[in-house]
Write a structure and sequence with these properties.
Length: 205
């Protein structure tokens, strides 16, 4: 099946891998997984242990062409993403709405702001304005450090970028204003532990 972005450009992501990851059983101890796979496994663990209800958001797709090789089967051969997605994950934890974006960077000491989009920043600003919890999770792949950074800092960096004063978020900001997420066996990425410390214990909601 061929997928296209809303602007008509063909999608070249790992749709098959994403589908397989979402359908496969959890392998909590597997090293070398992508951040998305690790988060999906962690979210399934949270769900199984009734700790939280958080899911990866599906991307709306409009089907435009279907082949019928036989009467009992149909094959989608062309489709388009209906619209740009907002953020990667959302759900409910301890009575609060949670919404966050997850990114990986191969740079050792920064993540380019071009990895984010204006509609995502605006979306998270709305979440925060209405009392929800919004943040980004970023993995620095060279060191395998994973940080949680409140969406307000992303918004500040984005605003500076619009004025030509910034092109990236330095790792030092994650170290100073963010929080490193512990990695362990169960769950693989225990970001809700950080959410507890940052938002509930301190009252920063």
């Amino acid at each position: 099946m061929t997928l296209f972005y809303p602007n008509g450009q063909p999608y070249r992501g790992t749709e098959k891998q994403t589908q397989q990851a979402s359908q496969s059983p959890v392998v909590y101890g597997h090293r070398g997984m992508t951040l998305e796979e690790d988060l999906n496994a962690s979210n399934r663990y949270y769900l199984e242990t009734d700790r939280g209800v958080i899911y990866k958001k599906p991307t709306p797709v409009q089907i435009v062409h279907v082949d019928y090789p036989k009467r009992s089967a149909a094959k989608i051969t062309e489709a388009y993403f209906r619209k740009a997605s907002t953020t990667d994950y959302n759900g409910i934890y301890r009575g609060k709405y949670i919404d966050f974006e997850a990114k990986e960077t191969t740079h050792s000491n920064y993540i380019p702001l071009k990895n984010f989009h204006s509609h995502q920043v605006e979306h998270m600003k709305r979440i925060k304005r209405h009392g929800g919890i919004g943040f980004i999770i970023v993995r620095f792949t060279q060191s395998d450090d994973i940080f949680l950074l409140d969406a307000d800092y992303l918004a500040d960096c984005w605003s500076a970028a619009q004025k030509g004063r910034r092109k990236s978020i330095p790792k030092s900001l994650f170290q100073e204003k963010g929080f490193m997420i512990p990695q362990k066996y169960l769950p693989r990425i225990d970001y809700l532990r950080v959410v507890d410390d940052v938002y509930f214990k301190t009252g920063h909601i």
